[in-house]
Amino acid sequence: MTPRCSWMWRRARCMLLGRSRSAATGRCLGAERTLTSTSHPPKICIVGSGPAGFYTAQHLLKHTQAVVDIYEKLPVPFGLVRFGVAPDHPEVKNVINTFTQTAHSERCCFIGNVTVGRDVTVEELRKAYDAIVLSYGAEDKRELEIPGEELPGVYSARDFVGWYNGLPDNRHLSPDLGSETAVILGQGNVALDIARILLSPLELLKKTDITQSALEAISHSRVKRVWLIGRRGPLQVAFTIKELREMIHLPGTRPINDPSDFYGLGDIVKDLPRPRKRLTELLVKSALEKPKERDCSHLAQSDREWGLRFFRKPVAVLLSEDGKRAAGVRLSVTRLEGVGDTAVAVPTGQVEEIRCGLILSSIGYKSVPISPVVPFRPNKGVIPNSMGRVQGTPGLYCSGWVKRGPTGVITTTMADSFDTAQALLEDIKSGALPLSEPRPGSSAIRELLLLRGIQTVSFSDWEKIDAVEVARGAEVGKPREKISDSEEMMRLICR
Ligand code: FAD
Ligand code: NAP
Q1: What percent of the chain clears pLDDT 90, i.e. is strictly above it?
Q2: Side by side, which strands form the sheet with 181-185?
Q3: Cβ(7) to ligand 1 under 6 A?
Q4: Of 132, 210, 410, 445, which is the active-site residue?
Q5: Which of 89, 141, 371, 495 could form a disulfide with 122 if both were Cys (CB 3.0 to 4.6 A apart)?
Q6: Range 347-377 burial, b when 16+ CB lie within 10 A, else e
Q7: Helices marked H in 25-140
Q8: Is 193 a catalytic residue?
Q9: Ligand 1 atom with the shortest distance to the CA of 161
């Protein structure tokens, strides 16, 4: 029996036992019925339950009587808040409380374990709903497009982060942490997250929601030194000050930056725009200033180290002598043409090599097209839109990373999701989004999904999974022990 068939079977069994999915989601269906009998509030469908999906829903629910259904590919909600945000940043995950409030609204329904574009098409959703908001993020990795990228020992940040965060697709990654030197290509916040996870003392990680298997692997890790490689200079790093500060003060580690990279920057700093100014000041300070006495003992006791290498563009992954795996990376030395954020790295012709057994490519994420009927700009990896209105496709909207590209923190995503929701509301008001005939909403889609053998997951199902994760975590002193096997999640909700 395929997993999908077995879920179908269990679903039938659940129904026989009187614990049907419709019982679990009765609140949502009931709400739809009440609303449609009195008036015709819009039925809106959101694709993706990350910050963009939830913030769009929040705004729509607050300002209309709309019924909002959120379809999610995974059996669990919250997108990168669960599968991206670093385990040692629990405070960032507090947004989940707000999302949970939204999900508990009588007019909101979470429908998990449904991949739009595969289990149900965008066209089918368009027939069932008055409007669709595509908030499905940037799921893929950007490729380096250099020889050797596919070798064992080279991992994308997306997969590595997914692995330590319990993303079902990455649960078997099993990265090789057997070498002393690791190289991270890219100097963004994801690169710093990974460096921190690789170098953090185990006692710190043990108290987080990092998966047990990742903790186990890291406890045997031999990695002692991490280089973060940027193709441009210190004035172009993509990480932010809070994350740099955290790295500088990471217990048991010390920065090993080359002071010559920072000479002269002190004079430029005063003319920089504010966030960049403060970030550069900290970089310069940590590289050039003599550490204070109290910091000296911390540094002397540190047996792990990390450093930033600038003006180095990766051109090839080096092959080990036995020809089986990665053994290092070849870098082209660059110089900048132009100044500031828009400066471009051009090769000087000089190359150098770093020997290492672990290479992590952290050069960003990438959105993928979801349907031939949805316009997509592959070079930028975004859905072309104006204020969230998908170009040339009335009734279709987008928010979050698929709208503006894979950059920006949760608050940026919140602001752009509110903008999209506002554009949708204005279209309802102006008549640009006609609500002439009542739509069937989720009932039509559920019928299709049932026929296709897809078992959906409701928010209360997720709450069962959540409770098990929290209970398992409590046994080992962690906030939760994430379940990374989708099959196990589906078994839990049918119990
Ligand atoms: P996502 O969060 O990716 O949500 C998209 C959702 O859509 C996912 O749940 C996905 O499963 C679902 N989906 C995809 N395809 C389909 C489909 N076909 N059908 C149905 N559903 C689908 N920001 C901070 O403020 N603080 C941090 O500490 C922080 N850490 C980060 C760490 C990492 C590793 C990364 C990559 C980003 C981090 N960010 C952080 C940025 C933040 O996560 C993003 O701004 C935000 O998650 C983008 O929201 P989104 O909803 O557009 O995308
Ligand atoms: P990012 O911020 O865009 O950084 C990508 C890095 O990769 C940059 O240093 C970039 O250098 C480099 N790069 C891109 N293409 C390259 C190539 N072909 N060769 C070599 N280097 C290349 O992306 P990210 O780190 O994936 O982060 C995504 C977003 O999530 C960011 O907005 C980030 O702030 C956010 N985030 C936030 C947190 C947090 O708040 N704690 C944590 C994680 C992520 P160039 O500048 O030269 O292109």
Answers
A1: 85
A2: 154-156, 358-361, 181-185, 225-229, 304-309, 253-255
A3: no
A4: 410
A5: 371
A6: eeeeeeebebbbbbbbbbbbbeebbeebbbe
A7: 26-38, 51-63, 80-83, 95-103, 122-128
A8: yes
A9: 34
Evaluate whether residue 2 is within a structural domain.
Answer: no
Residue 159 is a catalytic residue: no
3-state secondary structure of 312: strand
- In the listed set 323, 339, 364, which residue is the last one of a domain according to the structure? 364
400 CA distance to ligand 1 centroid (A)? 8
Ligand 2 environment, Cβ below 6 A: 144, 185-191, 193, 230-232, 236, 238, 243, 313-314, 362-365, 406-409
Total domains, the chain: 2
Report, as an integer, the average pLDDT of 37-49: 83
DSSP state letter for 470: H
Catalytic residue flag (residue 89):
yes
Q: What percentage of the chain reaches a pLDDT higher than 70?
A: 91
| Predicted structure pTM score | 0.93
Residue 416 covered by a domain: yes
Are residues 229 and 288 located together in one domain of the fold?
Answer: yes
What pLDDT does residue 301 have?
75
Q: Which of 85, 44, 80, 51 is nearest to 413 (CA)?
A: 51
If asked whether residues 36 and 87 sit together in one domain, one would say yes
Ligand minimally distant from the alpha carbon of residue 91: 1
Enter the tokens of residue 371: 């349907």
Task: Give CA separation, 424 vs 60, 67, 123, in Å.
Answer: 8, 14, 19
User: What digits encode the pLDDT tens for the residues 234-289?
Assistant: 999 999 999 999 999 999 999 999 999 999 888 889 899 989 999 999 999 998 87
Tell me if residue 411 is catalytic: yes
> Which atom of ligand 2 lies closest to the CA of 237?
9
Catalytic residue (one of 40, 63, 89, 298): 89
Judge if 357 and 376 occupy the same domain: no
- Per-residue b or e along 288-314, where b marks 16 or more CB atoms closer than 10 Å to that residue's CB: eeeeeeeeeebeeebebbbbbbbbbbb
Locate 5 and state its tokens. 């068939």
Query: Which residue type, as a one-letter code, is found at position 427?
Result: D
Q: How confident is the model at residue 36 (pLDDT cuts 50, 70, 90)?
A: very low
Amino acid at 6: S
DSSP classification of residue 1: -
Q: Which amino acid is at 414?
A: M
Measured CA angle at 66 (ends 62, 71), to 5 deg:
100
Question: Looking at the domain assignment, is residue 101 inside a domain?
Answer: yes
43 and 175 housed in the same domain: no
Residue type for position 228: L
Could you read off the pLDDT of 386-419 as tens digits, one per residue? 999 999 999 999 999 999 999 999 999 999 999 9
Atom of ligand 1 nearest to the CA of 115: 19
- Domain of 174 in residue numbering reads as 146-364
Return the CATH number at 341. Answer: 3.50.50.60
The predicted pLDDT at position 28 comes to 52
Q: Do 133 and 220 fall into the same domain?
A: no
pLDDT at residue 1 greater than cutoff 90? no
